[in-house]
């Protein structure tokens, strides 16, 4: 079944969503627009900081305050089902649909269904996953009232259309530490950010960079300026960034995953990612700098311990193997890793061989790339990295 969402309405809705990347206070308006398009009375969006145990974004439409409180009492049950799904799902793009992925017996016995969903006449709910890393989990939940029926293919298709754009907005909000950027304080706020921000035109000409961006380019980091044009260390990364900027000019609704979590680092280096945000549309973004086509946000995402734990969970590594993996992900060779752990080089070699066998790689550089994909914002899940 094809979505009835017109191209014009889709573009307008995506413009509203992208404004939320720079101003999270606009999420209620965006979610209300999504709920109207997708024909759902209940919709929520969360960005959870797993390290601090807190919500960075927690917005909802349609949920009464009393039931929001009741829902919090059932977070353990909700998270348990979602974590099970993420561990089994082959892709982060696969949504979790209660009516399709839970048994009738489970739904009948579930305290969450009985105490929170049933009293509101909610008969089904779908979760679309925006981000899943050891540090952050973000998802959008869309629930349907009995009069609207179960989640159908039109809802799923519309959700898939919006998913990469929701994912981009949440990812950039996370890179920005969920700060609101106001027009009259734009350059001041950009300069205070730890992440690098570059504003470019349709050719990739750098029109403005914040202090972090200037330092990044001055120190010959993962991106440089060649005669004013943006260039990455690799040709592939440069092509993707410029292609994403080009799509931002032509039709930001068509940009999809292009330009989201673009890897800028070399295989043996700490992970660094770039995220392209179109800024020529939308009421807020168009006010920021009218001659810029896109903003490129560049931030590091490297925590060897968390990356090692992610792979250990995914591939069943032992505690000793995980410790060796953590040393490898910090860039140490096998002799250095053995010395740091106080074990014999032969023991470290045995552990590394077991890691290779379990993960299906044969070189340390491939292992680093695998960990990079496992920790890359928005593009991965906690299970089988591609």
Automatic annotation (TrEMBL):
Q: Which InterPro entries does the record cross-reference, listed alphabetically?
A: PAS-like_dom_sf, Sig_transdc_resp-reg_C-effctor, Tscrpt_reg_LuxR_C, WH-like_DNA-bd_sf
| Gene3D superfamilies reported in the protein's UniProt record | Winged helix-like DNA-binding domain superfamily/Winged helix DNA-binding domain
According to the UniProt entry, its GO molecular function terms are: DNA binding
Ranges of residues in domain HTH luxR-type: 310-375
GO annotation, biological process: regulation of DNA-templated transcription
Query: Has keyword Acyltransferase?
Result: no
Source organism's superkingdom?
A: Bacteria
What the entry lists under Pfam families is as follows:
GerE (PF00196)
Sorted alphabetically, which SMART domains does this protein's record hold?
HTH_LUXR
* Annotated keywords: DNA-binding, Transcription, Transcription regulation
Q: What is this protein called?
A: Transcriptional regulator, LuxR family
Its source organism is Consotaella salsifontis
Q: Tell me the classification of the organism that encodes this protein.
A: Bacteria, Pseudomonadati, Pseudomonadota, Alphaproteobacteria, Hyphomicrobiales
